[in-house]
Amino acid sequence: MNEQTPLTETMTMAAALNSALHLAMDADSKVLLLGEDVADPIGGVLKISKGLSTKYGRDRVRPTPIAESGIIGAAVGLALGGYKPIAEIMFMDFTTVCLDQIVNHAAKLRYMSGGHTAVPLTIRTGVGTRRFGAQHAQNLEAWFMHTPGIKVVVPATAADAKGLLMSCIDDPDPCLFIEHFDLVFTQKDEVPVGEHRVPLGQAAIRRPGDQVTVITYGTQVRTAMAAAQELAEQGISVEVIDLRTLVPLDMDTVLESVEKTRRAVVLHDAHTFCGPGAELAAQITENLWGELLAPVLRLGAGYSPVPFAAGLDFHPTADDVVAAVGQLLGR
Amino acid sequence: MNEQTPLTETMTMAAALNSALHLAMDADSKVLLLGEDVADPIGGVLKISKGLSTKYGRDRVRPTPIAESGIIGAAVGLALGGYKPIAEIMFMDFTTVCLDQIVNHAAKLRYMSGGHTAVPLTIRTGVGTRRFGAQHAQNLEAWFMHTPGIKVVVPATAADAKGLLMSCIDDPDPCLFIEHFDLVFTQKDEVPVGEHRVPLGQAAIRRPGDQVTVITYGTQVRTAMAAAQELAEQGISVEVIDLRTLVPLDMDTVLESVEKTRRAVVLHDAHTFCGPGAELAAQITENLWGELLAPVLRLGAGYSPVPFAAGLDFHPTADDVVAAVGQLLGR
Amino acid sequence: MLTTSELQDMYRLMALITATSNRACAEVKAGSLQSAFYPVRGLEGVCAALGVAKQPGDQLVSTYRSLGDALAWGSDLRRVIAEIYGRADGVCGGKGGPMHLHDTSVGYMTSTGIVGSGIPIAVGLGIAAQLDGPNSNGTGRAVVTTFGDGATSIGAFHEGMNMAALWKLPVLFLCQNNQWGEHTPIAEYAGSTDLAGRAASYGMTAVKVDGFDPVATADVLREALERARSDGGPTFVEAMTYRLTGHSGSADYSYMPAEELAAALERDPVPSFRRAMLTSGQISEADLDSIEASVAATVDDAFTFAQASPEVEGHLRYRDVFAEGASLAGMGVRA
Amino acid sequence: MLTTSELQDMYRLMALITATSNRACAEVKAGSLQSAFYPVRGLEGVCAALGVAKQPGDQLVSTYRSLGDALAWGSDLRRVIAEIYGRADGVCGGKGGPMHLHDTSVGYMTSTGIVGSGIPIAVGLGIAAQLDGPNSNGTGRAVVTTFGDGATSIGAFHEGMNMAALWKLPVLFLCQNNQWGEHTPIAEYAGSTDLAGRAASYGMTAVKVDGFDPVATADVLREALERARSDGGPTFVEAMTYRLTGHSGSADYSYMPAEELAAALERDPVPSFRRAMLTSGQISEADLDSIEASVAATVDDAFTFAQASPEVEGHLRYRDVFAEGASLAGMGVRA
Ligand SMILES: Cc1ncc(C[n+]2csc(CCOP(=O)(O)OP(=O)(O)O)c2C)c(N)n1
Ligand SMILES: Cc1ncc(C[n+]2csc(CCOP(=O)(O)OP(=O)(O)O)c2C)c(N)n1
Ligand SMILES: [Mg+2]
Ligand SMILES: [Mg+2]
Question: Which residues does a 6 A CB cutoff place in the pocket of ligand 1?
């Protein structure tokens, strides 16, 4: 993107998010953060907003009651009132208690008012892991993809976490920004120092390849990369696409890749059934009919609530990806 | 299903639903109805529960405060307490204010308790039309398909409305039963007198044909039938499948038909993007690769909130179906 | 104390609201207006009081039953009616419809069709007003949100009220208590019908007022708005009225106890205010008549305008999903 | 008045809860228990009071912070701990985990991880209990739901409370007020910290009690449960305690004011009850010691049992999504 190679620093996704928040609040006094426990001393349950309330005050970094409809509703009101709120919903599962404000209000107000009311709102939300049980580990992005009017963003790297979050905060429309607990502390990479923006709606090719395209995002980018590495050792060349944003969806990059590889796997943590992969598979098939050498394969979570027991973990693994690629190549 | 042809009567879907409710409450004193305005004299905003409170009392037919989380939560509790509640959520859009109770509780309790708690709950909900605006006309079934643990049922005929509703009430698991305002008063057909059950998970072939399969449900069954008729007049033979339930999904019937026709259109009022049609298209393609003569086409609502203005109506029409079939046949 | 000109303004507003609401219902019944319209008969006094109590710069969040609020807030009648018809000249370009009037030009920020959902949104506008502080004239901005008695049962009410009390926000929560939530009377859905008592339990000033008395209501609303503008925190006002029609434009009202409705009709805002003005001599009969005549003409004009307004053009279908420039291609919309 | 044996039962329960909670936290910190566990330190008195006040047949809806409730309700410790480990012998076969204990064999109906969501579910169980009426012995069934102070901010609380008051349901709403919602103290999230006052505004009996005093708490809970069982309607009990640990098994508590925490620790239920029993002579030192020793052994046994319990087998992944017999084939699950 940038003309010159920017200065970078190795940091965790948590640090990158914190840095984006500091920069955004510093640059624009209209940027506010609200949510449960977001203020110091704790600075957010994952400490992602650490230091912000100390620096910008509790008017701008506002800890709230446990009242998610209130939080998102207030954020919508703040947006209508000329501010750029960032609202934190601790776990994505809790969008179920405020979905009305997200879906019926944030996502629709611009349209219903004939363009007179913009809602420049960023909702940051976390996806927990199995260890929290079935009500704290759902990957619900498909619901929001199916809701016209809200952008859906899922970073896989620390650099993207910073760059995409800054773009969401700038964006004139509501964005749902999804932070996976699995990545927040363990994902470390080179992050540009200072302001850094990754445009919404541009997928990234994480690894070039020419035999099979693996299309994924979020936590599963790692799985895909691990599988691609393993396959490379077997002499199989896999291209890995990290979608980065699900809305807007960068089908151009996807189609260009699959036009070349003629085989595709879509991979995500969300349930396979009626999930994001179904849309991707359908669009690829519609567009590349006659070019595809095999049907697009989908790998996602099975049809059950998230099981707590370790033995029941049901997200796709690198082995699953390797097997799917093998199947596509007829091995 | 039945060995002998049962006695039938012509009635509207509203009357068929009312009849199912009467029969179910009559047969089992554990069956209860709760929701806003469900009691007489009004008997529900669409009068579907007319006469029930007069006959069974307000303990069993309970008008509630405007509190959808309370309604579904109470219904879940009633189910845990040994009852078979039917909860009415006036418009499907209002599931956004009680999605937590539906998704995190009703749909998950059996699983999370390791099978110890069943939730035999039927949620009846209506889909409004454009005339109500963007917050009262959403077709959100894809969200629930993507939520393991809840069945999703959409009748297209009065007979099915009766038969499917009775099956939902009997069912040991939560069912979301979707009543389209467009059908409730205008859809009239022959409905079996007395108890009538249509099993969940069995699609119906509404019209046999052999060149193209149109897979649909709910309001769009009419559109499909109209298009099929028009196409028949042009000498094109279309098979129309009414899915009737989206969960469980009767892929056997779908695949058998498409195996024969080798061409398919999926048609619904829900948004196309990440909608039910994506899942159908993906499964058909995965299963019938090499058999299909063309990619599965999807027809649904476009990517925008529901517009109020008449000129912007964005649901598929019979003309769209005719055009899609033409495209599949290379005309 | 209200001036004569304010009293006249109130009368004009009330008469306008009654006439517009009745006309819209008649059009719905005649089949010439195909939209879900919610009459505002019974609320005229509360809305008129709001109209005189508000100040420029104040902001409003209303509901589906918003006609009276919109007129009180100064929205253009022609464009409001055009919106109800879903036409190109509507305040929302026809995309919103009667449940979703918006008119930011007068500070009418949004309307919601989801019962109670406007309350947290008003809280957010209240935070914005509080953060912005007083304007150059030294006055703060107040935020008003209207909702029905039935809305006090839903979670969003509770969440928003607590936040407003906690942060002492400049918000007026105006409960238009018409004693009914659709077809269910208040006693059948409320554990206690003292709604003001609920508001007080959050630590908020809470006042009950006779909403059929526009003068008393205006006093209470002025005081509440003054409190808001001078950083004195939120107020909950429970304006007691009665729904003088069915729930929606087409609905029957057979289920409403006849005596109760008859008693309420005795207090129908426009005729009672007229009587009061004549008795006290504050407005002359000639002035009242002339107001009524001008109202009738205005309403006719607005409906004529709306009916003549063009249908919305199909190419606008995907405009305003996002701000201009965002591509919808990946979501299947061809440019 | 509690009997000596009841006092002993309470002490046993309190000691068991403290020991189990501490052990689970230690296992989490050691990395040997990989699960989101929420300690119950500070609630021992409230839970023990509930344990003696409840009667067989009463039903419970709890939260993620449920260990004390589960033990009060008579769940088997071994199987509860096995569930916390996600093992095959867990009360939910390992599928629920610590936030989702269920044990219908003792009337422990469900636990929710979504703050406040248990309240409407308890309302439904209350309707069921009311409809079922008294059992053959002439006694009704009471439903208890526990939740924290922070849960009173969310919509579900409001919706459920109004329904319970409206329908006079046999439900005890037991607010375990530990003064914190995660890392935020009550004064920072509540417009008014008088939570009982909110309950009263729905027209419900509302009582505050010192939750560090198990005897006083047991009296209040007994009365409330009696009221419920005899069709006297719901009660809201605000049991005032303090959270004696961080929010979760692993969390720090650096953000809690040190003096406040120290003052609360002075009232730590187990040692204070022990002192009180010794002072009053109601339980002898030998008896207290023997209770403690047996508790320690029980806890050891339960953790040993749980750790030895097998992992859940993969073939159970898709069992219990629906009742047996429903096909998952169309949703992509191969039989
Ligand atoms: C969340 C939600 N539930 C139900 C409805 C359907 N509904 C529309 S208006 C209404 C009654 C509202 O009563 P009240 O708040 O007293 O306002 P009123 O209509 O009397 O002005 C109901 C139940 C809705 N729009 N939103
Ligand atoms: C709807 C929802 N919002 C947020 C959370 C995250 N969360 C879990 S516990 C908790 C604090 C709850 O405080 P309180 O109700 O006082 O109970 P306590 O934990 O103190 O026992 C929060 C915010 C949640 N589980 N559910
Ligand atoms: Mg009302
Ligand atoms: Mg607490």
Answer: B 36, 66, 68, 90, 94, 97; C 65, 113-115, 147-151, 154, 176, 178, 180-182, 243
* E strand segments, B75-174: 84-91, 122-127, 151-153
Residue A1, pLDDT score:
46
CATH architecture of A204-328: 3-Layer(aba) Sandwich (3.40)
The pLDDT, as a whole number, for residue C320 is: 98
* Helix axis angle, C269-280 to C4-30, nearest 10°: 150
The verdict on whether B136 is a catalytic residue reads yes
The answer to whether residue A96 neighbours chain D at the CB level (below 8 Å) is yes
Dist. CA D104 → ligand 4 center (Å): 26
pLDDT tens string A188-229:
999 999 999 999 999 999 999 999 999 999 999 999 999 999
Rounded Cα gap, residues D133 and A231, in angstroms? 66
Question: Which domains, from first to last, does chain D contain?
Answer: 4-310 (3.40.50.970)
Long-range contacts: C49-52, Cβ < 8 Å, 24+? C49/C10, C49/C214, C49/C215, C49/C217, C49/C218, C49/C220, C49/C221, C50/C144, C50/C146, C50/C174, C50/C221, C51/C9, C51/C10, C51/C13, C52/C2, C52/C6, C52/C9, C52/C10, C52/C13, C52/C218
Determine the average pLDDT of the residues in A271-287.
98
The closest ligand to the CA of C154 turns out to be 1
The answer to whether the beta carbons of residues A125 and A178 sit under 8 Å apart is yes
Task: Identify the residue whose C-alpha is closest to ligand 1 atom 22.
Answer: C182
Ligand 1 atom nearest the C-alpha of C43 is: 21
Instruction: Indicate if the pLDDT at residue B145 is higher than 80.
Output: yes
**Which superfamily is assigned to B8-192 in CATH?**
Thiamin diphosphate (ThDP)-binding fold, Pyr/PP domains (3.40.50.970)
* Residue D147 CA to ligand 2 centre (angstroms): 9
Identify the active-site residue in B105, B136, B268, B315: B136
Sheet with D171-177, strands from edge to edge, namely D108-112, D59-63, D143-148, D171-177, D235-240, D205-210
Cβ(B134)–Cβ(B264) under 8 Å?
no
Which residue from A minimizes the CA distance to B307?
Answer: A112
Asked if the Cβ–Cβ distance from C123 to A73 is below 8 Å, we say yes
Closest CA to B250 of B261, B237, B241, B239: B241
Domain residue ranges in chain B = 8-192, 204-328
Q: Report chain B's mean pLDDT, rounded to a whole number.
A: 97
Instruction: Check residue B95 and report its DSSP letter.
Output: G
Nearest chain D Cα to B145, which residue?
D331
